[in-house]
Design a protein that fits this description.
The protein is an alpha+beta fold. The chain contains 2 helices and 5 strands. The chain has a 5-stranded mixed beta barrel with strand order 1-2-3-5-4. The longest helix is centred in the N-terminal third of the chain and has 13 residues. It starts with 16 loop residues before the first helix and ends with a strand. 11% of the residues are buried.
Length: 121
């Protein structure tokens, strides 16, 4: 910040370039369908959308049939009887159901199975 007579004053908020770079790399490493859930609006990430997206092997397309997918636990109750579970947004057309009750907002890796229920890893 510029003070009076052009002197530079320290900002009231300290800036660590290492943490800033780490946050940007974590954002880019996260599949696009998970970013909104895992990274709330932050001033540091205001212009991160201008960066080129990574086409990383673990960034699956919606219709890609793979054994494992990254996901985030949703705050959505399971309406079936039994021991319950959780719904996971894995970037597919429908949410995936897992057999464990997990805290919403947590990033997980899900083993995709042919049955309607998937395994949480």
């Amino acid at each position: 910040e510029m003070g009076t007579a052009g002197e530079i004053q320290k900002s009231s908020r300290s800036f660590d370039p290492n943490l800033f770079l780490c946050k940007i790399l974590q954002y880019l490493e996260t599949p696009q369908y998970l970013r909104k859930s895992l990274f709330p609006m932050q001033p540091d990430l205001k212009y991160v959308g201008l960066l080129n997206p990574l086409d990383a092997p673990h960034h699956m397309r919606m219709d890609e049939d793979v054994l494992y997918r990254e996901g985030v636990i949703l705050d959505q109750p399971i309406k079936t009887s039994g021991k319950g579970g959780s719904y996971v947004n894995c970037g597919m057309r429908k949410n995936v159901q897992v057999d464990k009750k997990l805290k919403p907002g947590v990033r997980v890796t899900v083993e995709m199975t042919k049955s309607k229920k998937s395994r949480w890893i």
